[in-house]
Amino acid sequence: MPVPSSYNDITADGALRDFVGWVWYETDFYVSKDWFDGRNIFLRFGSAHYNTIVWVNTVEVMRHSGGHLPFEAEVSKYFLHGATNRLTVAVNNTLTPTTLPPGTITYKNDTSRYPEGYFTQNIQMDFFNYAGIHRPVLLYTTPSQYISDVTIVTRFNETAAYIHYNVEAQSTSAVVVTRVLNADGKAVGFQKGLAGVIVLTNYSLWWPYTMSNTTYAYLYTLELTLISSSEGSVIDIYRQPFGIRTVNVTNKQLLINNKPFYCLGLGRHEDSDIRGKGVDLPLIARDYSLMRWLGANCFRTSHYPYAEEIMDEADRFGFVVIDECPGVGIKSNNLGNVSLEHHKSVMRELVARDKNRPSVVMWSVANEPVSADTNAGPYFKEVISTTRQADSTRLVTFVIGPSDYWKDQVVPYVDIICVNHYYAWYSDMGHIEVIGLQIKQDLDMWHKTFNKSIILSEYGADTISGFHSLPTTSFTEDFQVDYLKAHHTVFDVLRNDYLVGEMVWNFADFMTVQGVNRPYGNHKGIFTRQRQPKPAAFTIRNRYISLGTQH
Description:
By secondary structure, the protein is of the alpha/beta class. It is built from 8 helices and 29 strands.
């Protein structure tokens, strides 16, 4: 089985595609002799879905719960020198009421209608539960003393930029020397110590690419050098890219570097033919090319953290990211203490991974939970508080689904309102004429009730490529274009008030579980699953490019 990939669509075996439970991976490898010369050897997984147990030479070395974030362990003592080493990995994709995303198992006990032991996995999200080792598996080494992490926070005023840094070093006596390197690799700032502030009087800001006609997505590098205090020799060097960027919000504006930013956005999925959710570098390059072609400047990692390779490109190309955890489809039975502690742990892991990314301006703690439930208020208050404790420099939100402004228990705790609505689709199906009235009524009341800026984080209609009708009919490409345009007419009114973003659902068609309303997946994409445009892609391109030039 290839790694990284989802295993589900690799073979012609339908049982493997729909398999729920433990699968096993195993491979043999050798470790270079010089790796044992006083160095630490780490084994790192970019992600595996969902629960994972790892053995090296039959000895368990780590476990991880959660499908979209990295995990690693120091494994030097388990390796054999000059002999074959065996790596064994067990991965279980079962979703339960306490996993993120949650799910349930139903056992079919009527043996006259089902085979003995038959069960089904019930999922609470509208995308396929792809499974396997989805991201790269790496071995890397460090010296016995090394730098393990750094946290960077930036701020600026008219005269200077301030780079605050805090280093974690696995050393008792060594000295850390810090340099700031500009995009050309030239040192422009210097400091000593595990923590400090470097001041730059001549600096460049990290801007989204639609907010600057000259320099955008400017990246510096913080170079940390660990030096022996007794010998003065270099022990370790750690380099961390970063950008100088701030984010704030008012009741009517989203501000990046103190300038208004309007999100010309996309909902997305990590999803494609054959490899499922497995990281795919050519696909990542294609997707960014298409997003630039559209004129989009923002996306949400719906509905889970995306691969680090995707996030790297957002930093590099100047895309704004709403970084979302896998808290999708949370229902009333998923609000207990076990779920809460796991949810908080996932948010801490997500912040730890992406805390230094200038592209990330906002954390999303959930998508479409039961936020009108009376238990949702205290549950999400604690999750949001935990997220703010981990990172006080970014905004925190969640995405509203099955709730109304007069019932919602969670919106009081967030910095900005993100709301999904499918007017003339899941309600008043096909009646485009009601869209304008209903959007304005609902969003006006959200803003009036909570006095916070709003992003319409999902709107869209399923569209089968090649279907046409006149007059337009739902599921045709013609309907999708008219549907989007009806929304845009209202957006153009509201964006002069409190609306700070619009995010079409979805960038591309994606796979779901089988269902009578899901003919081979969800077809709300403005591109097909193979990344070819539907007419709606040209509609979005014309709009986004026009609006992007107004910044």
